[in-house]
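Morning, I've got a small favour to ask if you have a moment. You're getting the sequence in one-letter code plus the fold written as tokens. Thanks so much in advance, here it is:

===
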Amino acid sequence: MPVIDVYNMEGKTCGTIDLNEKIFGAPVNVPVMHSVVRAYLLNQRQGTQSTLTRSEVAGGGRKPWRQKGTGRARQGSTRAPQWTKGGIALGPKPRSYRVSVNKKEKRIAMLGALSSKVSSGELIVLDNIALEEFKTKKIVAMLAALGANGKPMIVTEKPDQKVVKSAANIPGVATAPVNAMSVYDILKHDKLILTKAAVASLEEVYGE
């Protein structure tokens, strides 16, 4: 069972926490994690790109010149793809990029991502994040005290607007409640900062 230190907002150790082996010590299945991240990114695409075909562009109803005798190539419409302002041949049309992933794969990928953060020393557990007001300086000072420079992700048990708005202007810093973080978010960021309440929530969901 992994045991790591618990820190306060000043970066001082205030105890330790025993992490659930099933969640934070699970095998890291890279192919499944790749599959889940790929599906996540594809599902963000709107698929609204569209081009006009020769039947959809305006004009071109009349044959530009007679079929034979002009010395020029035969043409049926000035809106064919080879003409300026003509239709687009084989261009993109609206489509869905959606890819489905089953629950078992999502679970394996999530546990693998969390476990990879523990094994690489990139998981930080905070006793609590207590902000009395919206203050970016306090989040900056906390991250500096924790040595979480670069692109850290702060995860709380529930949506906390003071944390969200205080960290919103800090480049590279992301925030999320436990139920909104994804495998992509975990792997994308250098450090994963969880509150003790967030750890308890994860163990409640995935510890079965």
